[in-house]
Amino acid sequence: MKSYARTDIGSKRDMNQDYYYATEKNIGSFHNLYIVADGMGGHLAGDKASKLCVESMISYITNTDMVTPVSIFSEAVAYANHEVFQASVSHADYSGMGTTVVAATIMNDTLYVANIGDSRLYLISDDMVQITNDHSLVEEMVKRGDLTESQARIHPQKNIITRALGIDSQVQADYFEIQLKKHDKILLCSDGLTNMVEDYDIRYLLKHSASLEESVDNLIDRANSAGGLDNITAILVEYD
Question: Where residue 178 sits, what CATH number does that domain have?
Answer without folding.
Answer: 3.60.40.10
